[in-house]
Each structure stands twice: as structure tokens, then as C-alpha cells.
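Case study 2.
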Amino acid sequence: MTQELWTSVDDYISNLFVPFDPVMQEALGTSEAAGLPSISVAPNEGKLLMLLAQICGARKILEIGTLGGYSTIWLARGMASGGTLITLEASAKHAEIARINIVRADLTGVVEVRVGSALDTLPQLVAEDRGPFDLIFIDANKDNYSEYFAWALKLSRRGSLIVADNVIRDGEVLDSTNNDPRVQGIRRFNQLLADESRVRATVIQTVGRKGHDGIAIAVVVAE
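Prediction:
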């Protein structure tokens, strides 16, 4: 198994299930031209996020980590009619690009981009009583995943879906001695998720154009 094969299979899947979409292509192109890191979700994972939003009938979505808004658009497209999405982004530059892409996707008035560290903006959402959210997607600073998850629980209800990306990190999560703070952050999160009695959860490891990684999916079963 090679990266070349994984990427080819991803292309095969995308050609079948994620047809060319000029809005999505322009979102990626605008992000690349602005120098944003090439770490957006793959197209097939973006469509998975859309389907998860549709499956749970999400009317209120929270995204932690906007980047250029690519995953934001996928999530918003899966929302029920009249729904709203709040996305949190630490970088003002990234948020600016995301807003351009969101406007191009005709999602103005549906998506709110908030700028600032998520550990500052998440408590604000609680104080403003903006929850509970039907779906929360975590894809930001890996060091702080455990803290994001704790706030996600505060902003959830029974039946809410919590999804977290990049939870395998090329298999590095197996190494408890790995000094990378991102790996240690994900290890803490995975253990916390497994131990949390208020959710039922699992992790699926994935391979594709983004390499070897995984996604965690949890449903809140108790408040």
C-alpha cells in the first residue's frame, strides 16, 4: 500500500461521488493563492460531513477551525432549511479568505465567522446561550482537542453529533513517548473520548490523499 495508491483511490471515489463543483474548486484555489496551508479536508470527507449534517437534521452547526472555509461550505450545504452555522478561526487572514469563499458559495447570512482563539470564543458562545448545537466539527489546533471537546459537550444536547478530524496522525498516536504536542494532544483527546460516559463514540482510521489518519464520531447520549 502506497500514498500513490491511496490518492488514486481517493480520485476514483471523488470522480464517482463528488462531481466537479466550481464553488468548491474556487474555494481551494483562493485558499492556495493566499498561502493558506493545504490541510483542508479531502472532497470525499467534505461530502461525508455534509451527509452527517443531513442525517442528523442539523439546524445549528458549530465548526472549530475554519481555515479557508472549505469544510464550512460542505457542512452548511448539509444543514436543514433555515439553519445557521458558526465557525471559529484563530487567524484573521484565514477568516478573511473564508468569508470570500462563503460569499461565493451564496451562504452569507447562513454562516457566521468568529475570529479569535477558540478557547476564548467557545466560552463566549456558552455565555450567549448559543447552544445547543446539533453537530459540532472539531478540526483546529491538535494540542487543545481535549479542551475543545469539553466545551463541545457544554454546547451539546442529547442526540448532538461531535466529529473530530485528524485523530490518528500517520499512526503516531500509538507512540506514548512521541514528544510532538499535536500527537500528545490527540492521544489525550482519544482517551478522554473513550472514557466519557456522556457519549457513544468510535474512531475510524482512514487512508487517502491526506495520508494515514482518522476521524472520531460521537453521539451525545446524556447531558
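Helices lie at 3-17, 22-33, 43-55, 70-78, 92-104, 118-127, 145-154, 181-195.
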